[in-house]
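Please fill in the sequence for the structure shown.

STRUCTURE ENCODING:
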């Protein structure tokens, strides 16, 4: 606030700080207190100190990597035009000025001569320092990142803003201890995806805010798993379990039970249903992992718009980016879900939306969410139920309506995360999706804790998890056993031959097939039975059904090769004649597709 007061008196300031350090919020507080409608009240409080101030008029510009010098200079001239008024003092705000520094157009060079003898106040907000040529022309204020020292004060301040909450005040200290301990442990470990400062301020704000309105930590770890536990690496989960054990003083069994109740897909589901939480980032190990959302009915094609990155020349044109932005804006207005598949090129244009920096109406009343501020958000009375946010399109911005039902899902790959900065990833609730891991985590509570099926069902409220537990032990060893069964069934010598026999076979194929079986109605799978012989028979039927799913995926050339080399086991080779191509056409009398290498050709009678 002191730095902003400097700019009110005609100085030029660049404020540098990590996400969540209240750069934008501080300016908004200053703007709200010094706007024309409130300046008289503010002036009355300052009269005791003989301070005379004009109303503050802020001219803002959202910077992106597509910003151009011409637009910045236009905003500068616009702010200067207001300096002729005796009632207001203009201030030019360049939000996220650090993004413009990476623009190929070098738009910030225009500031070199404008800042030599500025006639207006100037503020630049950045998550990282700028180059020396600009920093030497302004007053630079670096906000220290004393995260550990601030956590308790922040948690208590947020707690005081809520009059009605089920969260005991003592649990604030417990959540602070858990956050600190987890941050401390992962900083010592060299985990994939977990960079330095993997956990940020916004993660803590989201954690506290969640428990203000939901079940307290002693009854549910939903808030912990959604805001802190999205990375399902075993080593990371061990760090999280240790931090929870130390902070909550619960037993290992209790902690694992509460953690297992919130596997990745369940967390994503609750995130999509919660109107007040952050948007969702899915970190996929495979290009198709995100389709779990469709398979498990978390998304539907009618309620979501899918936008994909493309490397075709025509799709990399500027108009394609505009088309993507307009589709996202349409989703914002009607309350649909927007799924952005590796579309990082438009993320900067949607910076305010991804940060959920919404305001209520044209009067400038802002609705800030808990994870944007270092201090608790103030309770503003909104005159309208509509919410708006800025969207930057090239070097211009426009205000767009945001429906309460709107949600954005950003899909990235692991390599994208490794090349991303914390300022980008901290905007989201982050979840790592893997078919095999999602399947294992759905069953780990039942198998690891060795609880009776009835207790497990009562805990997870599911009628599907136990079916796989009856036929397969969800461990890596059993997963390898399934691979071995497929190899033996088709007389394959090595695992690499599985990809030769089955189209598209990879590490996720078997878990995907198992998931498909589990999603079938219970009557089609098996009934409850306690006799060991019946259980073995059901397990055998399960394996047979799993094998049946792979039959249509078999490569014809590989089948013929195997048939000629080694007769299939448990099969009478004389009863499996191979008809000639013509004989097959005559018997089928329909269109078939003959696959030759990577080409296909239709053949008819």
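FILLED IN BY: designer on duty
SEQUENCE:
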């Amino acid at each position: 606030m002191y730095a902003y007061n400097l700019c009110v008196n005609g100085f030029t300031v660049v404020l540098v700080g990590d996400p969540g350090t209240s750069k934008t919020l501080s300016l908004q507080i200053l703007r709200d207190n010094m706007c024309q409608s409130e300046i008289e009240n503010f002036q009355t409080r300052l009269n005791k100190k003989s301070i005379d101030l004009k109303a503050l008029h802020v001219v803002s510009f959202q910077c992106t990597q597509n910003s151009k010098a011409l637009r910045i200079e236009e905003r500068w001239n616009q702010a200067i035009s207001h300096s002729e008024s005796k009632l207001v003092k203009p201030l030019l705000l360049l939000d996220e000025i650090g993004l413009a520094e990476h623009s190929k157009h070098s738009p910030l060079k225009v500031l070199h001569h404008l800042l030599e003898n500025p006639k207006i106040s100037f503020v630049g907000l950045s998550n990282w320092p700028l180059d020396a040529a600009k920093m030497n022309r302004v007053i630079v204020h670096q906000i220290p990142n004393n995260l550990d020292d601030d956590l308790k004060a922040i948690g208590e301040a947020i707690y005081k803003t809520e009059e009605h909450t089920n969260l005991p005040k003592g649990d604030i200290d417990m959540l602070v201890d858990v956050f600190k301990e987890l941050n401390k442990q992962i900083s010592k470990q060299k985990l994939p995806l977990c960079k330095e400062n993997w956990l940020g301020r916004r993660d803590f704000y989201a954690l506290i805010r969640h428990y203000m309105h939901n079940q307290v930590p002693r009854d549910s770890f939903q808030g912990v798993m959604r805001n802190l536990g999205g990375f399902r690496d075993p080593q990371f989960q061990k760090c999280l379990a240790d931090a929870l054990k130390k902070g909550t003083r619960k037993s290992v069994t209790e902690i694992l039970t509460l953690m297992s109740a919130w596997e990745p897909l369940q967390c994503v589901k609750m995130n999509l249903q919660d109107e007040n939480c952050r948007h969702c980032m899915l970190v996929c190990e495979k290009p198709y992992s995100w389709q779990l959302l469709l398979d498990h009915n978390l998304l539907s094609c009618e309620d979501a718009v899918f936008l994909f990155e493309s490397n075709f020349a025509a799709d990399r044109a500027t108009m394609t980016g505009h088309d993507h932005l307009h589709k996202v804006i349409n989703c914002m207005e009607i309350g649909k879900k927007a799924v952005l598949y590796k579309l990082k090129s438009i993320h900067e244009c949607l910076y305010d939306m991804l940060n959920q920096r919404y305001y209520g109406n044209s009067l400038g009343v802002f609705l800030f969410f808990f994870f944007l501020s270092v201090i608790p958000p103030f309770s503003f009375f909104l005159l309208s139920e509509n919410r708006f946010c800025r969207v930057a399109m090239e070097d211009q911005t426009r205000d767009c309506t945001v429906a309460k039902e709107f949600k954005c899902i950003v899909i990235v790959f692991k390599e994208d995360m490794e090349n991303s900065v914390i300022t980008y990833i901290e905007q989201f609730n982050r979840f790592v999706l893997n078919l095999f891991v999602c399947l294992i985590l759905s069953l780990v509570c039942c198998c690891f804790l060795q609880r009776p099926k009835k207790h497990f069902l009562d805990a997870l409220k599911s009628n599907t998890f136990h079916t796989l537990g009856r036929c397969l032990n969800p461990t890596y060893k059993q997963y390898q056993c399934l691979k071995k069964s497929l190899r033996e069934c088709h007389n394959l010598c090595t695992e690499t031959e599985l990809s030769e026999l089955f189209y598209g076979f990879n590490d996720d194929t078997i878990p995907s097939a198992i998931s498909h079986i589990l999603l079938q109605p219970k009557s089609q799978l098996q009934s409850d039975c306690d006799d060991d012989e019946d259980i073995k028979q059901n397990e055998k039927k399960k394996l047979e059904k799993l094998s049946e799913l792979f039959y249509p995926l078999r490569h014809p050339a590989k089948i013929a090769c195997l048939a000629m080399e080694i007769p299939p086991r448990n099969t009478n080779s004389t009863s499996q004649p191979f008809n000639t191509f013509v004989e097959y056409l005559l018997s089928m009398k329909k269109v078939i597709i003959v696959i030759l290498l990577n080409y296909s050709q239709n053949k008819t009678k």
